[in-house]
Amino acid sequence: MLSIFTGDDRIKATETINRLLGPDHETIDAADLTPADLPNIFQGASLFAETRHILIRDFTANKAIYAELPKYLPTQHDIIFLESKLDKRSSIYKEIKDQVKITEFKLPEPNFTIVFDIYRTAKRDGKKAVAMLAQIKPTEDPIKFTGLLVSQAIKDFAANPKGIKERRILKMLATLDLQQKTTSLDPWLLIESFLLRI
Q1: Which residues, including other chains, have CB under 8 Å from residue 105's CB and lie 6 or more apart?
Q2: N- or C-end of the chain: fewer Cβ atoms within 10 A?
């Protein structure tokens, strides 16, 4: 089985990889591979099992090995390629697309109107904004949600560049963005905290 997983929802992609390949699968970073490594990956045997379970990250970004892929399409191993980007215009993609299962994991598009309503509500009533957020959390991505909050705060600042509250909100959003990228705290909890404070 050869599959390509692409898209921006890495959490769902990773869950599916672990379900299909098992938690003890081999993981290979394609940046370190050369064409000479490919026979071992696609045709090499394992001492412990007839079929190997392999995850290869960013295979298509390494042009030298990606060009060799059509030679190795029939394989007895279960291999999933996890790609940040997949160029559907390339000749290699056109050659392999009917022989490899391609799955795209996309995050849902944010509901702009609701996000902006939550932001405006938070400026008056943080508790009500958190209650509104609870309704949409299951269908939204916290990083995209934060990005929309930032875009609205920038518009507010552009309309009132000398406003103290506008500057304070931008600083708070910068802190929120940094916290989401550097801590293990639930991103929604961080957003709720922000909404209560503005």
Answers
A1: 5, 6, 7, 8, 9, 10, 12, 13, 16
A2: N
102: part of which helix (H) or strand (E)? strand 101-104
Are 34 and 4 in contact by the 8 Å Cβ rule? The answer is no
Angle at the Cα of 110 (from 108 to 112), degrees rounded to 5?
Answer: 160
Q: For residue 148, what is the enclosing H or E element?
A: helix 142-159
Tell me 24's DSSP state.
T
Distance CA 144, CA 108 (A): 10
Residue 106: CB atoms within 10 Å: 10
Low-confidence ranges of the chain (pLDDT < 70): 47
Residue 138's identity, in one-letter code, is P
43: its two tokens: 């045709």
pLDDT, tens only, 38-65: 999 998 877 677 889 999 999 999 999 9
Distance, CA of 98 to CA of 185 (rounded, Å): 42
Query: What is the number of alpha carbons within 13 Å of residue 53 lying toward its C-beta?
Result: 11
Does the pTM surpass 0.85? The reply is no
Number of H helices, E strands in the chain: 9, 5
